[in-house]
Structure formats: C-alpha cells, structure tokens
C-alpha cells in the first residue's frame, strides 16, 4: 500500500490538489494499491475569527492530522509519498516507513533564507520553511519536477550529513489537453463575456502573485495594441485594483477580458484559439501552463528564467524578462498564419514529452526500490 499525503483543502492550492489526484489515479491504473489522505478542516473551517483562522488551521494541520496519520499507518503502509514538499513537516511522523517527497519548487524556502524569489516570509513563515527544509533531509527520496528545482534542492540540502536520493521526474498534464475542432472551440468560448470570434487574442494563465509578473504581461500587450486590434485574455485570478489601474494608465483596459478560474474544458478552448500564450513569469518550479498550451498547439512566448526554457524546449519563444520589446515583437510575428503554424507544430512535438504513463512508471520504480514488497 502506498499512502499519498495531500494538501489541506482550505489552503486552495489547486495545482497541488490536482497533482495528488493525478498520482492516485495513475497509481491505481498501474495496478499499485494507493490511498490519498490529507488534513481535514475542523478548527480552520470555523467562521468569524478573521486573521486568526490561519492559526486555527495550524491546529488541524500540525496537531490533529499527525494523530490521524499515525492511526492510518498502524493499519499497514509500505511507503508514504508526500505529494507536495510543503508537507514534508510530516516526514518525522512517518518513520520507519520509507518516504518519497515530490518537490515542486523551493521558492518559499529560498525566500525564508533571504534569497530573492518574490516569496517574502513572515517570522512564522521563516520558522515553517526552515522546518520544511529540515524534514526534507529525513526522507529517502526527493523527486523534483524540473532540473532547476533539483539544482536548488541539491544546494539547499547539502552539508546536512545525510541527504536523500534526488531525481527529476517531469510533471504530466493534470488534464488531457489537446487540439480540438474549431467548432468545439467556438462553442465553449461563447460563454466568455466579451469574446469576439473575429478578434484574435493573446492569453495569459496565472495568478496575481508578484512572481507571475502580470504587470509585465500588461506592459508587453500595451506595446502591441496600436499595431493590431487584438485582445488580452487573462485566465485565473481577477485583476487586483493596482493591476486594473495599470491597465487604465496603459490605455488597454477596454481590450482586456478576464476569465476567472476557468474549468479545464474552457481553458483548453482558450489555448486552442489563442494566438499565443504569454508567460513572462519571474520565478517558477515548473510552469504547467506552458505544457498545457503546447499540448493544444498554442505557441508559447515565455521568460528565460529557469525552468521555463526547460519546459518550453525548442518550441518556446524565449526572452529575458527585461526585454519586453522582444516579447511584443513575437506577438506581432505570430499574427502571420504560417509563422504561427510553424511554432504550433513545434509545440505539439514538445508536448509529447509530458506523459502520465512515463511519470507514474518513474515513481513506481523508486517505490519498488525503497519498498520491494510493493
């Protein structure tokens, strides 16, 4: 039995929740007995406590869940896979069962150590991130989602006396994104307010976190808006007041469409119709939207910060973040149908690297080395 440890639902770490589900489904399909367990909201679900809700959630995560975890382990577990490194704090409670951790990025840990990652930490955050780092040194294997994350892990876990095994296991898509027919794309996009089937658009997928560089997205789009009549579609979080003000100051507000937290089928349609995905993110652990877009044949214009070039491969149109003029030039370049078709074909070829079967097989190989009884 492989016991997967997932994330606390109220934290709304949607990508991490999707990864846990991917692992459960993939292992089950591969014939591996697996179960997903995660901290459940009790104190953290109480209303009326304002900012104290975060501290009530800590009771759920750090006091109640470890007892539930130990009770489940007493029923028999061969291996534990912590699917998000931020939950490595449970590693000490998992002994002597071998533990595998998926490390998606170490940006918060690095921020707590004083490094520039756009992830500043409070005093409590510094304590928590150092705790996570300490517990990562206890586990048997750390599977990193990119070479960039592996480099961070090797550096930060060095000098600890004993170190876990480390490897790179590239993420698969969390939904079977693919090219769909123009008719199906149009049918799905008709639900998007303000969308015009005759007007091309550039797509950005992400949140308002500073590291996602949405301000850069707006500035890049503004460099193009007098040279074509296209729109900018922002999928994910609604714009903050500051970003709305920036859009107004740049004179592009009327050409921005916000699609708040689209479900995967709608996002798939957005990728399919977009001229390109614009993704000038400053810091990432992987960059799922790049792989998603490419699987739909959507060209990707992204930043040169690792690991984005690693994910985009030779299909990416890649620029330093301070070269916003080149980002804008590539948007205009892709308005040519032949040019877009060229980069679309390259994107589809690169997307073939992202395989559910391949990802699961690599994890199963590690599991069976650490727990031969599986």
Q: What do these coordinates show?
A:
- The structure is a single chain.
- The N and C termini lie close together (7 Å).
- This protein has helices at residues 14-29, 53-73, 107-112, 123-136, 147-156, 182-189, 214-222, 241-250, 264-273, 288-295, 308-312, 324-333, 337-351, 356-370, and strands at 2-5, 34-37, 79-82, 99-103, 141-144, 165-168, 201-206, 231-236, 256-260, 276-279, 300-303, 316-319.
- The chain is built from 14 helices and 12 strands.
- The strands form 2 sheets. A 6-stranded parallel beta sheet has the order 2-1-3-4-5-6, with helices on both faces.
- Helix 1 links the parallel strand 1 and strand 2.
- The chain folds into 2 domains: 2-172 and 355-370, Rossmann fold, CATH 3.40.50; 182-351, Glycogen Phosphorylase B (Rossmann fold, 3-Layer(aba) Sandwich).
Write the layout of secondary structure elements.
Layout: E1 2-5, H1 14-29, E2 34-37, H2 53-73, E3 79-82, E4 99-103, H3 107-112, H4 123-136, E5 141-144, H5 147-156, E6 165-168, H6 182-189, E7 201-206, H7 214-222, E8 231-236, H8 241-250, E9 256-260, H9 264-273, E10 276-279, H10 288-295, E11 300-303, H11 308-312, E12 316-319, H12 324-333, H13 337-351, H14 356-370
Parallel strand pairs: 1-2, 1-3, 3-4, 4-5, 5-6, 7-8, 7-10, 8-9, 10-11, 11-12
């Amino acid at each position: 039995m492989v016991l997967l440890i997932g994330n606390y639902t109220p934290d709304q770490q949607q990508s991490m929740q999707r990864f846990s589900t991917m692992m459960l489904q993939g292992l089950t399909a591969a014939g591996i007995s697996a179960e997903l367990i995660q901290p459940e909201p009790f104190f953290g679900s109480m209303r009326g406590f304002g900012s104290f809700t975060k501290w009530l959630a800590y009771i759920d995560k750090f006091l109640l869940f470890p007892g539930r975890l130990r009770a489940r382990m007493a029923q028999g577990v061969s291996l534990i896979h912590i699917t998000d490194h931020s939950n490595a704090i449970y590693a000490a409670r998992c002994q002597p069962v071998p533990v595998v951790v998926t490390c998606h990025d170490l940006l918060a840990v690095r921020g707590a150590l004083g490094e520039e990652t756009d992830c500043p930490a409070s005093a409590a955050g510094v304590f928590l991130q150092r705790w996570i780092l300490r517990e990562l040194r206890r586990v048997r294997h750390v599977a990193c989602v990119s070479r960039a994350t592996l480099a961070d892990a090797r550096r930060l876990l060095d000098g600890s006396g004993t170190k876990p095994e480390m490897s790179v296991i590239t993420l698969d898509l969390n939904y079977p994104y693919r090219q769909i027919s123009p008719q199906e794309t149009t049918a799905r996009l008709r639900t998007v307010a303000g969308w015009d089937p005759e007007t091309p658009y550039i797509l950005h997928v992400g949140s308002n976190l500073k590291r996602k560089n949405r301000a850069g997205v707006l500035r890049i789009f503004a460099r193009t808006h007098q040279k074509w009549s296209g729109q900018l579609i922002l999928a994910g979080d609604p714009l903050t007041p500051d970003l709305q003000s920036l859009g107004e100051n740049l004179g592009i507000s009327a050409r921005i469409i916000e699609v708040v937290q689209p479900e995967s089928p709608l996002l798939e349609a957005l990728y399919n119709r977009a001229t390109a995905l614009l993704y000038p993110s400053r810091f990432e652990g992987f960059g799922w939207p790049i792989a998603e877009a490419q699987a739909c044949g959507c060209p990707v214009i992204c930043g040169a910060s690792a690991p984005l070039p690693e994910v985009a491969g030779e299909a990416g149109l890649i620029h330093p973040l301070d070269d916003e003029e080149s980002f804008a030039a590539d948007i205009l370049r892709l308005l040519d149908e032949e040019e877009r078709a060229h980069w679309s074909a390259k994107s589809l070829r690169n997307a073939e690297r992202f395989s559910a079967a391949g990802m699961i097989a690599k994890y199963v190989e590690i599991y069976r080395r650490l727990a031969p009884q599986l």
